[in-house]
Design brief:
about 260 residues; alpha/beta; Purple Acid Phosphatase, chain A, domain 2; 6-stranded mixed beta sheet; 5-stranded mixed beta sheet; 15 strands; hydrolase activity; Metallo-depent_PP-like; Metallophosphoesterase; Calcineurin-like_PHP
Length: about 260
C-alpha cells in the first residue's frame, strides 16, 4: 500500500493535481487556502484585494509581533472596501476552494488546517473525498486518526480552537496506527520555524496521546521550515510531511 501525504497546500492547485500520482490514496492535512504569502507578497487573498505593498507592510508588522498595529492596519483596509468585508473574504476563499477541490485527486482523506473554513468544504467535496476531524478510518488495513485545526494564537486564523476542544478530538480518535494532525505535538524542535524564527503552537494532548498509545506514525505539517523534520517518541515516528506549497512533493508512506 502506498499513500501520499500533503499539508499546507496554500493554493497550489496545479501541484495538488499531481500529488496522488502513483499512490493508492492521498491524505491531506489541511491549510488549503492562501490568504497571505510570506515569501511572495504579491500572492494570496490579502494581496489580491490590497496589493503587494500593503501585504508586505502587514507581514512586517506580524513578523515583528506588533499584532495590535497589524490588526489596526487590517481593519482600516477592510473598511475601505465596499460592502461587508466578510463577503469579500468568502468570495475569494470560495474561488480558491473551487480550484483546489477540482484538482484534488481521488480517493483522498482530509482534515482541516488552521487557516481553513470548515463550513465551506461541503460545497466543493467530490465523491472520492472524505473529511475526518476527531475521527478515524481504515486505509489499507491500518487505522488512521485525524485531528484538524490549530490552537488559539495571536494570529487569530479561522480554525483555531481551545486546548480543551482540541484535546477532546484527540481523545475521540483513540488508539490508531497513524495519527494525522495539522499541527505537531508539543515538542520544541518540531515547532521552531528556522526561517520565521519563531515557535509555533503544538499540542500537549497530541504528545500525551502519542506517549500513551504509541502509534506507528504521527504525521503533521503547519511548521513550514522546522528545525527538525522528524523525531521518535518511543516507537512512534513523528514526521513533518513538508510545506507542500514550497516543495510541491508529497510525503510517501508505504507498508
Amino acid at each position: 500500500m502506498r499513500v501520499h501525504v500533503v499539508s499546507d497546500v496554500h493554493g497550489s492547485a496545479e501541484a495538488l493535481a499531481r500529488a496522488g500520482d502513483g499512490a493508492d490514496a492521498l491524505v491531506c492535512l489541511g491549510d488549503l487556502i492562501l490568504f497571505i504569502d510570506y515569501d511572495d507578497h504579491a500572492q494570496g487573498i490579502f494581496a489580491d484585494l490590497f496589493g503587494a505593498e500593503r501585504a508586505a507592510e502587514f507581514i512586517g508588522l506580524r513578523t515583528a509581533k506588533r499584532f495590535d498595529e497589524a490588526r489596526a492596519m487590517s481593519a482600516r483596509l477592510w473598511a475601505s472596501l465596499d460592502g461587508d468585508p466578510r463577503e469579500h473574504i468568502e468570495r475569494n476563499v470560495r474561488a480558491q476552494y473551487a480550484r483546489l477541490f477540482a484538482a484534488m485527486p481521488e480517493p483522498a482523506y482530509l482534515t482541516y488546517g488552521n487557516v481553513d473554513i470548515p463550513r465551506l468544504w461541503g460545497d466543493y467535496l467530490r465523491d472520492g473525498h472524505q473529511v475526518f476531524d476527531g475521527q478515524s478510518v481504515e486505509i489499507g488495513g491500518l487505522r488512521f486518526g485525524f485531528v484538524g485545526g490549530g490552537l488559539k494564537t495571536e494570529y487569530r486564523t479561522p480554525y483555531e480552537i481551545s486546548d480543551e476542544e482540541y484535546a477532546a478530538k484527540v481523545e475521540a480518535v483513540g488508539e490508531v496506527d497513524v495519527l494525522c494532525c495539522h499541527i505537531p505535538p508539543a515538542v520544541p524542535e518540531l515547532l521552531y520555524d528556522v526561517v520565521a524564527r519563531r515557535l509555533e503552537r503544538g499540542s500537549e494532548a497530541t504528545l500525551e496521546a502519542i506517549r500513551r498509545t504509541q502509534p506507528r506514525y504521527a504525521l503533521f505539517g503547519h511548521v513550514h521550515q522546522p528545525l527538525v523534520q522528524r523525531t521518535r517518541i518511543g516507537r512512534t515516528e513523528c514526521v513533518n510531511v513538508g510545506h507542500f506549497r514550497g516543495r510541491g512533493v508529497p510525503y510517501v508512506l508505504e507498508w
